Amino acid sequence: DKVLVELIEPYEVRAAKLREFLEDVNPSLRYDIVPLVDPYGPAVTDPDLQCLVVSEETRRGGEAVNKKRLENGLPELALYEILLMKDPDHSQNEEEKISSSSLRQRLLGTLLRPPRQDAALPSRPYVIGLTGGTGSGKTSIAKLLGQLGAFLIDADKLGHAIYVPGGPAYEQVVVAFGAEILNEDGTINRKVLGAKVFGNQERLKSLTDIVWPEMARMVKEQIREADAQGK
């Protein structure tokens, strides 16, 4: 449930940076850095541990560790509470403390690796597929891309255009699913059509076999139009 989990660095990188930091602070100590594969880690099983460093926000976690240690027949650890350093440059949407979550927020829009050069990809039109669930921000991102000069193809609008009388899939859909899917004005009632196909894999496939090739054709036509406009 971390923010921008895709931008979290690999464990090996994080462990190496942590070791470098600790050895810079005090090179005379021995550091055992281990991955935590559960909420407790070795703190609830290692009899040699004596102290657990916590912050104000992780003290309850430390108390949970001690409860688990007692259940395992081990003595409680001393909980040493430290203050977290404040981030003087944090923005309104970031945490007040120095935080890896804030760092990941700042990485948005940064190239994490050089762009892949592929001779098979045309320089234009360069096609980006923008997908995501409801409320994920597709409309906002599309608007920003449009402001940058991108040619926008709205698949939802194409999907509606396919079903209108005279549209590329209208006749085929009516033949396949019957006149009962039509409104009085001859337009396809998408709710009635949806009730016929959803939950029925065979009927749904019949519909997509009609609609998707037509949508793909319309998208390709619009891509050619974008190319003609130099987009």
From TrEMBL:
Keyword Nucleotide-binding: yes
Example GO BP: coenzyme A biosynthetic process
Pfam name, any one: CoaE
Matches recorded under SUPFAM superfamilies: P-loop containing nucleoside triphosphate hydrolases
Keyword terms of this UniProt record: ATP-binding, Nucleotide-binding
Top-rank taxon: Eukaryota
GO terms for MF: ATP binding; dephospho-CoA kinase activity
PANTHER family, alphabetized: BIFUNCTIONAL COENZYME A SYNTHASE-RELATED, DEPHOSPHO-COA KINASE-RELATED
Protein name (Swiss-Prot/TrEMBL): COASY synthase
Species assigned in the record: Himantopus himantopus
Organism phylogeny: Eukaryota, Metazoa, Chordata, Craniata, Vertebrata
Name of the encoding gene: Coasy
